Amino acid sequence: MTGQDRSDNIARGLRQAEEVCTRHGVRLTRLRRAILELLLAAGSPVKAYDLIEQMRGKGERLTPATIYRTLDFLLQYGLVHRINSTNTFIPCTGNHDEHALLMFVCSECHQAEELDDPALYESMRARLREMGRSLRDNSIEIQGRCEKCARE
């Protein structure tokens, strides 16, 4: 991805975030925007404490409580996703009904990718219901090897 493509993706992600916040009557504050921008620029999953360090590099001193409150807001409005298996965060790249999400996480490089397959998601959820089980939230993480790692 070129620098221009990355800049375009960041700008598009921030515009979408503004639209989501406007639609819900909430504000994308300076801090929320800055954290989202870091996640959009990262290109890979990021830990909360790494975000604190990156913000420190920009002259901001954040506490863990502040970063987690900010991430909770971004999670609540579907602007980011938490990858439970690695305790990291990525920006949302899809359009999920009620934030239903399939996430593929590479067990080697830890890259994460949203899978846009509502039929597969619903099939997996239905199968879990048949087994008498339910999801804690609306996301399903699938562990495996990404295409790049599989080639190496």
Textual characterization of the structure:
The structure is a single chain. With 152 residues, the chain is an alpha+beta fold. It has two domains: 3-86, Arc Repressor Mutant, subunit A, CATH 1.10.10.10; 97-151, Ferric-uptake regulator, C-terminal dimerisarion domain (Dna Ligase, domain 1, 2-Layer Sandwich), CATH 3.30.1490. It is built from six helices and five strands, in the order H-H-H-H-E-E-E-E-H-E-H. It has helices at 3-24, 30-42, 48-57, 64-76, 118-130, 147-151, and strands at residues 80-83, 88-91, 101-106, 112-115, 139-144. Strands 4-3-5 form a three-stranded mixed sheet, with helices on one face. Strands 1-2 form a two-stranded antiparallel ribbon. A hairpin with a 5-residue loop joins strand 3 and strand 4 (112-115). It is globular. The two termini are 21 Å apart. 18% of the residues are buried. The model has no long low-confidence stretch (mean pLDDT 90).
Keywords, separated by commas or semicolons:
16% strand, 152 residues, 3-stranded mixed beta sheet, alpha+beta, 2 domains
Summarize the SSE layout with pairings:
Blueprint: H1 3-24, H2 30-42, H3 48-57, H4 64-76, E1 80-83, E2 88-91, E3 101-106, E4 112-115, H5 118-130, E5 139-144, H6 147-151
Parallel strand pairs: 3-5
Antiparallel strand pairs: 1-2, 3-4
Helix pairs in contact: 1-2, 2-4, 3-4
In DSSP terms, counting alpha (H) and pi (I) runs of 4 or more, how many helices? 6
Q: Please, what is the average pLDDT?
A: 90
Strand ordering within the main sheet: 4-3-5
Task: Tell me, briefly, the overall form.
Answer: globular
- The topology string of helices and strands comes to HHHHEEEEHEH
Low-confidence stretches: none
The number of E-state strands comes to 5
The CATH C-level class name of the largest domain: Mainly Alpha
The secondary-structure class comes to: alpha+beta
> Rg, please?
16 Å
The CATH topology of the largest domain: Arc Repressor Mutant, subunit A
For the largest beta-sheet, the strand count, sense and barrel status come to: 3 strands, mixed
User: What's the helical proportion of residues?
Assistant: 40-55%
CATH architectural group of the largest domain: Orthogonal Bundle
> Please, how many domains?
2
Distance between the termini: 21 Å
CATH homologous superfamily of the largest domain - what is it? Answer: Winged helix-like DNA-binding domain superfamily/Winged helix DNA-binding domain
Strand content: 15-25%
